[in-house]
Structure formats: C-alpha cells, structure tokens
C-alpha cells in the first residue's frame, strides 16, 4: 500500500514541477543549424512578400476598381436615360404607344405552354409581348 502512495506522490510532484517549455525547433543546437537558419529566412521572406502583396491588392481595389465601377455606373446611367428618352420620343410620335413589333416566325416561338401559361416566368408587360393575346 505504501508503494502505491509513494508512486502517486512522485507522479504528483513531477506533474507540478516546472517544465521547460519547448516548441518546434527551439533547441540551442538546432538554432545553430544552417538549414534551420535558411528555414527562418525563407519564412521571413514569405511573410514580407505576403504583406507587400496584400498592400498592393488593397491599393488596386481602392484606387483602380472602385473608381472604375463608379465610371461604369455613370456611363450605364447615361446610356439608359438616353434609351428611355428615345422610347418616349417613339411613343410620342405614335400616339402614346409603341409601334407593333414585326410578327416574324422565329420570334416568340412556343412548342408548348409553360405550366403557368404562355408568358415566361420573367414576363414584364411594359417590355415584353404578351403571348396570351397571340
């Protein structure tokens, strides 16, 4: 019985004793190793490269992409306002309605109706021809 108590006390003492904290490749002999020094130099170079590349793409995003998106939005807005003005002009010339589109055979062909009717799921009566009427 005393052997069990002595062994338990010895285990408890070794568990509470301060241990030498040792991480990966922190031994003094390894720090003098040229391969270890080369590894540390390569790791430092990779970290530096990642930092500079991240900074480069952040600058590209702020100073190139965001202004390009703003210019593109302004251009599209101008094109769409010109198009809307042109459509209104055509409506004004034709008594307030758009002229009828030509009834070509290859336009708006339906082999069979959709489950919800002849119009597509994205039907817009202001821009699309109503196939229910045809």
Automatic annotation (TrEMBL):
Biological process per Gene Ontology, one example term: mitochondrial electron transport, cytochrome c to oxygen
Tree of life domain: Eukaryota
Keywords: Membrane, Mitochondrion, Mitochondrion inner membrane, Transit peptide
Main location: mitochondrion
Subcellular localization, as worded in the UniProt entry: Mitochondrion inner membrane
GO CC field: mitochondrial inner membrane
Matches recorded under InterPro entries: Cyt_c_oxidase_su6a, Cyt_c_oxidase_su6a_sf
GO terms assigned for molecular function: enzyme regulator activity
Pfam families membership: COX6A
SUPFAM superfamilies given in the database record: Mitochondrial cytochrome c oxidase subunit VIa
PANTHER family on file: CYTOCHROME C OXIDASE POLYPEPTIDE VIA, CYTOCHROME C OXIDASE SUBUNIT
Family under the similarity heading: Belongs to the cytochrome c oxidase subunit 6A family.
Name of the protein in its database record: Mitochondrial cytochrome c oxidase subunit VIa
Native species: Leucocoprinus birnbaumii
């Amino acid at each position: 019985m005393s052997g069990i108590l002595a062994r338990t006390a010895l285990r408890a003492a070794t568990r509470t004793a301060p241990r030498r904290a040792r991480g990966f490749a922190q031994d003094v002999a390894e720090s003098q190793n040229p391969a270890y020094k080369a590894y540390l130099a390569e790791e430092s170079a990779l970290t530096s490269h990642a930092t500079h590349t991240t900074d480069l793409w952040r600058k590209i995003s702020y100073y190139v992409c965001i202004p390009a998106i703003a210019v593109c939005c302004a251009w599209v807005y101008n094109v769409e306002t010109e198009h809307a003005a042109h459509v209104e002009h055509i409506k004004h010339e034709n008594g307030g309605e758009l002229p009828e589109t030509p009834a070509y055979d290859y336009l708006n062909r339906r082999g069979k109706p959709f489950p919800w009717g002849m119009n597509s799921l994205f039907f817009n009566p202001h821009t699309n021809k109503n196939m229910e009427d045809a």
